[in-house]
Design goal:
Strand content: 5-15%
Number of domains: 2
Helix content: 40-55%
Radius of gyration: 19 Å
Structural class: alpha/beta
Shape: globular
Number of helices: 9
Low-confidence stretches: 174-207
CATH architecture of the largest domain: 2-Layer Sandwich
Largest sheet: 4 strands, mixed
Strand order of the largest sheet: 3-2-1-4
CATH class of the largest domain: Alpha Beta
C-alpha cells in the first residue's frame, strides 16, 4: 500500500456520512496525478439519452457508455483492461463534455479529443478505426468497412465488432441507418444486425445516432 493509499483509507474513516468535500476530492485527485497514480479518469456526462459514463487516459478517450450500462460494470471493465487506478475527475473530462454538448446541439460534426484504443485489439481495432474515418453524413456498408480493415470477407465479424463499440459517436457505427449501413451480406441472425436494429428501435436514440 502506498502512502497516498494509506492516507485515503485513514481519511475515509473520519469522513461524515455525506462523504468528502469537493475540496478534499480535488486535493486527492491532484496528488494522485502528481504521483502518477491516476491512469483512468471518469465522469458522468448529461446527454439527451441520459447520463453517459465517459472515461479518458493520458492518451485520449477510452470509453463512452450508454446510461443503461451500470457504472460499476463500466469501471470494472476499465480496471481489468486498462488499469485499476481509476478516479472520478469531472474537471478533467470537461473538454469531452463540451464536445458532446456541441454535437447534441448540432453545432459540432467532428470531435477533437483523440482516441485511446486500449479496449480494442487486432481486426476489431482496425474496424473501428475505419469507421472513425468515415466523414460526417457519409455511409459505408459493413463489407466496405471490412475491406478497409483488411479482410473483405469478414463482414459478419465486422458487424459483431461494431455492435460492441466502446466509443460511440467517436467511432459512430452503432446505428444501421447511420454512417455504416448494413450490408445484405450480413446474416439476419447475426449479433451485428440485431444490435443495430435495437439501437434504432428507441426514437430518441435513433434520432441522435442518425447524426453519426
Amino acid at each position: 500500500m502506498t502512502d497516498i493509499d494509506r492516507e485515503l483509507s485513514e481519511a475515509a474513516r473520519g469522513l461524515p456520512v455525506t462523504g468528502p468535500s469537493q475540496q478534499a476530492l480535488d486535493g486527492l485527485l491532484a496528488r494522485a496525478e502528481k504521483e502518477g497514480l491516476l491512469d483512468v479518469a471518469y465522469a458522468q456526462v448529461d446527454s439527451p439519452l441520459g447520463p453517459l459514463t465517459v472515461a479518458t487516459t493520458s492518451r485520449g478517450l477510452v470509453r463512452v457508455a450508454y446510461p443503461e450500462r451500470p457504472l460499476d460494470q463500466v469501471l470494472e471493465g476499465l480496471a481489468d483492461a486498462v488499469s485499476p487506478r481509476i478516479l472520478e475527475a469531472p474537471a478533467r473530462l470537461d473538454p469531452i463534455r463540451r464536445e458532446l454538448e456541441e454535437y447534441f446541439e448540432g453545432r459540432r460534426r467532428q470531435f477533437e479529443t483523440p482516441i485511446d484504443w486500449a479496449l480494442t485489439r487486432g481486426f476489431f481495432r482496425r474496424v473501428l478505426q475505419a469507421t472513425a474515418a468515415i466523414d460526417y453524413g457519409d455511409v459505408c456498408t459493413y463489407s466496405e468497412v471490412a475491406a478497409r480493415a483488411g479482410s473483405e470477407r469478414a463482414v459478419r465479424a465486422t458487424g459483431n465488432g461494431l455492435g460492441s463499440n466502446p466509443m460511440p459517436w467517436w467511432c459512430p457505427a452503432i446505428a444501421w441507418c447511420a454512417r455504416a449501413a448494413v450490408s445484405a451480406a450480413i446474416p439476419a441472425g447475426s449479433t451485428a444486425r440485431s444490435s443495430c436494429w435495437a439501437s434504432s428501435a428507441t426514437e430518441s436514440r435513433s434520432r441522435l445516432t442518425s447524426r453519426e
